[in-house]
Amino acid sequence: MLVTHDHSGEPALSPSLEQRAVGAYVGLAVGDALGATTEFLTPREIREKHGIHDRILGGGWLRLKAGQVTDDTEMSLALGESILAHGGVEDAAVAEAFSQWMRTKPIDIGNTVRRGIVHYRSTGETAVAMNEFDAGNGACMRSLPIALFYCDALHEERVQASRAQSHITHNNPLADAGTETLVEMVVSALKGLEKSLLETMALSLVSRFPLYRFDKRRMENPSGYIVETLRAVFQAFFSNDSYQDILIDLVNRGGDADTTGAIAGMLAGAYYGEERIPHHWRKSLDIKTMLACRDQALGLLAQGRQIDSTQY
Ligand SMILES: [Mg+2]
C-alpha cells in the first residue's frame, strides 16, 4: 500500500479504490446535507446566523431534517440504480428512472430538470434539444455513478454515457464540457492521482472554455450556472488541504450551496477517501441514505469492472 503524507504532515495510508469510491458517494451526500442549510443565503447572512457553518443541522429554505439530502443525492441514486439494473446507461431506462423519481414528489427539483422530465413524458424522447440557456448544474450534480461504473472504461465510452444521462434534461456544450471534466477528475481521484494532475485537467477545460477560469479571488454566492458552480468548486478544492476545509469553505459562500457542496464532496471524497470525511458529519447523515450511498458505490464499481474485463 502506498504511503503518502496528509496536510498535517503525518504519514497516512493511501485509501483503496473501494474506500475512495465510498468516500465519493458519502462525500456527495454529506456536502448536499451540509450545504442545504445555507442555500440561497449570502456569506453575510450565514455569518450572522451561524458564525461559521460547519455542522449538519438541516433547516434552510427547504426546512430539512438534520441529515436529510436533496435532489443532488436523490438523482444520483436514481441514475445509479438504473445503471445497475441495465448494466450501463440506457437512455430510456435512465429517463424513466428520473420520471419515477419525480413522481415521489421530491423535496426540491430544478426547473430545467423538471422541464426535461416533462419533455420525456410527453414525447418519449430521451434528449432535449440543444439550448444555450440549459447551462445549469443539474446534470453535473448527479454524474458520480458514471465515474464509478465507467471508471475503467475507455474515455470515449465514459463521455458518451455522461452525455446521454445529461441530455435527458440539459443539452448545452458548456455544461457537457464541465460535467465531463468533473467526471474525468473524479475517475483520476479514484485512481489516486495527485492534485497537481487534477489541476491540469481543470486548466485544460479553462483553455477550451475560458469562462471557467478560476482565479484566487474567492467567489461568493455561486449560482446554479455550471460555470459559477465549477469555478467555486475548483477554487475551494485547489486552495484547501482537507475534505473538511474544502466543504466548510464552500458552504459558507452561500448561493447554490447544496450543489457546490455535493460536487466538491464527491471530488474531495474520491481524493481523500471515506475515512477522511469527518466522523461527526458521516454520523449525522440520514442512515438510509448513508447505506444506499455505500452500497451503490461498491456495486457500481464492482459491476463496472466486471463488464470492463469482459470487454477489453
Ligand atoms: Mg439540491
- Please state the overall shape, judged from the principal axes of the Cα atoms: globular
* Small ligands present: magnesium ion
Low-confidence stretches: none
For the largest beta sheet, what order do the strands appear in spatially? 1-2
Subunit organisation of the chains? single chain
Output mean pLDDT.
94
The CATH architecture would be Orthogonal Bundle
Termini Cα gap? 26 Å
Could you give a quick summary of the protein structure above?
This protein is mainly α and 312 residues long. The protein has helices at 17-35, 43-50, 71-86, 91-103, 111-123, 144-149, 155-167, 173-190, 195-208, 226-239, 243-251, 257-272, 279-284, 287-311; strands spanning 3-5, 11-13. Helix 3 packs parallel to helix 14 (287-311) and helix 10 packs across helix 12.
